[in-house]
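Today's session is about reading a structure prediction critically. Students often jump straight to the picture, but the first step is always the sequence itself: look for stretches that repeat, for charged clusters, for runs of hydrophobic residues. Only then move on to the predicted structure, which in these notes is written as discrete structure tokens rather than atom positions. Here is the chain we will use throughout the hour.
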Amino acid sequence: MMNVILFGAPGSGKGTQSLKIAKEFDLMHISTGDVLRKEISDGTGLGQIAKDYINKGQLVPDDLIVDMLAKVLDTRKESKGVIFDGFPRTLTQAESLEKILNARKTSVSLLIDLQVVETELVSRLLERGKLSGRSDDNLETIQSRLAVYHKQTAPVTDYYKKTGKYVAIQGTGSIDEIFARIRSVLAKLS
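Below is the predicted structure for this chain, in token form.
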């Protein structure tokens, strides 16, 4: 089973590339944002708890996110693996992910870190904001999100470097050029 984490700063192209990876390698795509929205819209117990945190402007706790992911993994036992898009975001989440995968007799195969210089990230996010109308894609919010990424999320890479399950990929160029780099790395795993 191939379980891949697609990692990178906001604006690095994780969403775009994770969908291409899922299709190419027949992997289940798991986006924590999608999982949260589905739980909330379905009115599940986990969704109601998450909604309460979100409505108060708070982050959904790690253990709740992990419980939601475990539930999703249990519904898709027939897949060839998973591409995790936007998870884990903290060291605690990385450790929890290993536990839930190990309980299912599998583990993370690889973390792919899409590396993009910060000026390019800001430019991409500002452009996305213009095209999509996303209110969180403004300069002040982008700078805040990047600061949080560097402080809380980037250290996750050290966790996977220690396990030998880390690879950096240049995240600039065309979507197809970036995907070709990713495909060549993943082809060695399958």
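Discussion point for the tutorial: Residues 53 and 105 are 32 Å apart (CA to CA).
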